[in-house]
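Board notes, transcribed. Complex of a protein with (R)-mevalonate.
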Amino acid sequence: MKNNINGFSKLSKEKKIDWIAETYFAQPEKAVQLIKSYWNADAKLQQLHDDFIENTITNFYLPLGIAPNFLINGKYYTVPMTIEESSVVAAAAKSAKYWSERGGFKTTVLNSEKIGQVHFTYNGDATKLKAFFTKIKNKFYEDTNHTTANMQKRGGGIVDIVLKDKTALLDNYFQLHATFQTKDSMGANFINSCLEQFAKTLKREALAHAEFNAEEKNIDIIMSILSNYVTNCIVRVEVSCPVEQLSEKNIPNPKDFAEKMVKAIRIAEVEPYRAVTHNKGIMNGIDAVVLATGNDFRAVEAGIHAYASKDGQYTSLSHAKIENDTFSYWMEIPLALGTVGGLTSLHPMVKLALEMLENPSSTELMQIVAATGLAQNFAALRSLTTTGIQEGHMKMHLGNIINQFNATPNERTLIENHFEKNPVSHAAVVAFIENLRK
Ligand code: MEV
């Protein structure tokens, strides 16, 4: 079979590219040229990126944009955002400026605990297992001393280890549910190393436990892994101001605007179809900063969406109310982030992004990310409840179409002037350009 290959990972980068070019492209030379045109001229820098993953053939660009004027707890931040979607950075910047003139974002880290679990089966008397666990609990700490020593110096470590009986859900299923403080690192490696040691300790001690019968001694470790559902690693972000202060050029009637915002959020609170899109808008901001700062956006996404359904139905992450003529708008989300370790010290753009944020601690970064998420949500709701989302989107879209057609500066001005007053659609722009070029 032509498209099947053994030993691909062993091929050199050049050979990998050749194989792909020959296998999939009508014009292999052109494909090779395109792939290589995205290589960095600095071979050392390219090697660094090659080594992040396996089978790297080239780089895949995403823009790094900047949203300035984020006033968070009285301090201004310029927020780096990595995202491909037009309008997102502009929207964040607009919201940031708007709220900076109304007291800014108030954020609080409610807690910063991480979670990891050893999942195992035990076929026997649960009370005997509980007594055994209490007896050997110290061993888990002792056996992980070599891993935890450094973390402890930084003020982190294992917070607690609890035995959980999950047999009501699944036959013989128990777990060690451990909590950790990982300070400024996201802590995945640290947590997983501790957990794998806990599993070994559990197995070893069970085999040596005189009170267990043969079956009870034979604890079966299924897996040991951190949880991305960080329900005790929560940041809260809020903005508020007197309703009349919401007024500005596009908000002539602040009371109507505030009421519509509250209703829009109520809809997302009760209607999952809307909630998913509403929260997607929040994630536009969150993911962009998470990515720019070298954090794991898949972990953040999974955790936040699980949190959005914690009460049994998927719902809005943000909330709003009007009380005593004050509009308040807030959100609480789980966020496990790191500002040391992982990509943060490897990827030059991540280092740059963190430096731009004045090298925040992980808890400070949680607050910046949460504020960006709320800013994004505010911008989306503000458009949706006033002009509609397409006005802003189409403006950005226009720029992309102009680029697609390699418009000259003169053509660009003519196109932009025309579409200031006329509705933008792909077809209308194409027709206009074709007409210009006749
Ligand atoms: C688009 O990326 C995000 C929005 O759909 C969010 C929302 O509807 O709230 C505009």
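The first helix runs from residue 13 to 24. The chain has four domains: 8-50, 66-108+235-387, 114-227, 392-436.
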